[in-house]
Write a structure and sequence with these properties.
With 175 residues, the protein is an alpha/beta fold. It contains 7 helices and 5 strands; from the N terminus they run H-E-H-E-H-E-H-H-E-H-H-E. Strand 2, helix 3 and strand 3 form a beta-alpha-beta unit. Helix 5 packs across helix 7. The longest helix is centred in the middle third of the chain and has 18 residues. It is globular and about 50 Å long. It starts with a helix and ends with a strand.
Length: 175
């Protein structure tokens, strides 16, 4: 009984240690909650960069509504992770263009790495809603016209992971 109790306590300690609390900050609602409400926040995601920015030549300056270091200073956790969200419900075209070819996927991934290096962000949140879906475009483009995206989505993710390396965080919106 005592051994079972010790295992249970150890498991609870691990779970509480591994908890993640993510807060999204957007340019439309750049509101920081009171300190008492953000004490446990472990990750902040800055939303959203347009996906099409990552298809071509990278810009000389990445269009964030704030900078990563300013965000870090507003949260009490010293090991706060700051991510940059790309896309969002109404932004699927850049992802589609990137996913369409090996060269497109590679360029997209390399541009994400360049953005992370330039901004000092700890990772990227890929908010493609959704491959083969359409997000806000569902009334203009049928899902059958976009079904090819489902098969290349893992290839795009793999290319991004290879470009940014194992130490950067990568998250994704999934249905």
């Amino acid at each position: 009984m005592r051994a079972t109790l010790l295992v249970l306590i150890a498991a609870l300690a691990y779970v509480s240690q591994a908890s993640r609390y993510v807060l999204y900050l957007t340019a439309q609602h750049e509101v920081y909650p009171p300190a008492v409400h953000i004490a446990d926040v472990t990750h902040v995601t800055l939303a959203f960069m347009k996906s099409s920015i990552f298809n071509g030549k990278p810009p000389s300056k990445w269009p964030l509504f704030t900078d990563v270091e300013t965000v870090r200073k507003k949260f009490p956790k010293k090991d706060l992770a700051v991510l940059i969200a790309i896309g969002g419900w109404g932004d699927t075209r850049g992802f589609s263009a990137a996913a369409a070819s090996q060269m497109g996927r590679k360029a997209f991934a390399e541009n994400i790495k360049a953005m992370l290096d330039s901004t000092g962000a700890d990772g990227v949140d890929l908010d493609w809603e959704y491959p083969g879906g359409n997000g806000e475009d569902y009334k203009q483009i049928t899902n059958s016209e976009k079904s090819w995206e489902v098969g290349v989505y893992p290839k795009l993710l793999a290319e991004i992971r290879a470009a940014i390396g194992p130490d950067k965080i990568m998250s994704a919106a999934v249905p």
